[in-house]
Structures are given as structure tokens and as C-alpha cells.
Amino acid sequence: MTDNTVTGWVGWGVFAAVILIISGLLNIFHGLQALIGPDSLFFTTEAGLFSVDIQSWGSFHLIIGILLLLIGVALLGGATWARVIAIVLVALNALAQLTLIAAQPWLSLAVLAIDILVIYALTVHGRELKAR
User: Fold this and answer.
1) The CA-based dihedral angle spanning residues 79, 85, 87, 91, taken in that order and rounded to the nearest 10 degrees
2) Do residues 20 and 68 touch, judged by C-beta distance below 8 A?
3) How many Å apart are CA 59 and CA 35, to the nearest integer?
4) Phi, then psi, of 49 in degrees rounded to 5
5) pLDDT tens digits, 25-62
6) CA distance 62 to 26
7) pTM score, two decimals?
8) Residue 49: strand pairing partners
9) What is the pLDDT of residues 54-84, one digit of tens each?
10) Structural element, H or E, at residue 120
11) 57 in the Ramachandran plot: left (φ > 0), alpha (ψ -120 to 50) or beta?
């Protein structure tokens, strides 16, 4: 037996969907920016010189951005499958942010906090999106 009542907490689910749409648009923008720009990037750290293939990085962000955008729109429609995929993608993004803490501590912590809020919204209050 399922309870399809909508409470004020449905806003958490809408919040998660909007965050995914915004994140998707930003990833699409950064992916296109990387694909149009130079082919590689060199930077130095205390460990040495590193080279990053910008084209593959841009393609990855473009694909993830499109997925996040589509899943965010599907979440607003109340699709249960979108909740599951969104939780998996956001959890992977949270793990990726943990690897970037040394390079960008404040940005990584802010994105990690938003990822945790989105996971909370989708796991605890996501069911109400379908009833909305």
C-alpha cells in the first residue's frame, strides 16, 4: 500500500530536479567550451607536470550534462526511474568531488554539500514528486 499524499516536503524533490537541470546545463556549457577550445592542457603541481586531454574531458562533461538535464526534466514529471538514476549520478559526482578537494577545497565542499542535499531530497521526499 502506497501513500500518495503530497506534503510541503515535495519542494525538496523539485529542488533536486532544478539542481540537476542547472548542473546539466553547466556541464553542457563546460563540455562545449572544452570541445571548442585547445586540445590539451598542461599544469604543474608539487608532484610534477601533468597533461590533460581536454577533448575527452569535454566529451565526458557534454554527455553527463545531457543526461543530467534529461533526468532533471523526467524528475519534474515524477518518473521513478529518474530518481534512481539521479541518485546514482549524484553519488558518483560526490565521490568525484572528494578527489578534487586538494585542488579546489571550497568549491568541492560546496558541491559535495549540494550533492548530499539532492540525495536526501530524492531518497526521503522523492516519492511525492510522482503524487504531485
Assistant:
1) -170
2) yes
3) 7
4) -95, 135
5) 988 888 888 788 776 666 666 777 766 677 887 888 88
6) 9
7) 0.77
8) 44
9) 788 788 888 988 999 999 999 988 888 999 9
10) helix 105-124
11) alpha
